[in-house]
Write a structure and sequence with these properties.
- The chain has 5 helices and 8 strands, in the order αβββαβαβαββαβ.
- The protein has 175 residues and is α/β, with parallel strands linked by helices.
- It has an 8-stranded mixed sheet with strand order 2-1-5-4-3-6-7-8, with helices on one face.
- Strand 6 and strand 7 form a beta hairpin.
């Protein structure tokens, strides 16, 4: 009996041992202040990597902004981290205002950032973090609402039911 309980306990902790925390990468907010991904720990977070020149990103961000209005009151943090080059940075704030996006925005993502997060090498790309800073979902390509809501609802419902797929890939359109 004791051996059975020990094996059962081991199977419960094995997935936790394999879970990997997000690297504590640094970015800048729109005011130029340094921000770290570790500041998101303690809340569920949706992080989208995008750029103003990326057509699928321009389609995805308004959907994420709409989802943020529904999920922010539930304690979910939404963040868009731009991969725009320094020459394109002046386009960011006008784009945000024109689209009336309700998202916090940081700057300084790159292909290296995507690589470190195992997100492929194309934009847009999205990760979903649990409250411990562990990546529970990656979306390569344009995220659809169900890609986000299925993972958020699972986390908000205390991980009841089958866990969502860890990776979703959508073919890039027009990038």
């Amino acid at each position: 009996m004791l051996r059975t309980l020990a094996l059962f306990a081991l199977t419960l902790t094995a997935p936790l041992a394999q879970a990997k925390r997000i690297p504590d990468l640094e970015f800048k907010d729109l005011a130029g202040h340094t921000e770290k991904l570790s500041s998101l720990q303690g809340s569920i977070a949706v992080i989208s990597f995008w750029a103003t020149w990326c057509a699928p990103c321009r389609e995805e961000l308004p959907r994420l902004s709409h989802l943020s209005r529904d999920y922010t009151p539930k304690g979910v943090h939404f963040l868009a981290i731009s991969a725009d080059s320094s020459k394109d940075k002046p386009k960011i704030e006008p784009f945000l205002h024109q689209q009336n996006l309700a998202l916090e925005v940081w700057l300084g993502a790159s292909i290296d950032t995507l690589d470190r997060l195992n997100l492929g090498n194309a934009l847009p790309a999205t990760i979903i973090l649990d409250e411990n800073g562990e990546i529970i979902g990656r979306i390569e390509g344009e995220a659809q609402p169900a890609d986000i809501t299925s993972r958020l609802d699972w986390l908000l419902n205390h991980r009841q039911g089958a866990s969502p797929e860890p990776l979703t890939k959508h073919l890039q359109k027009g990038m």
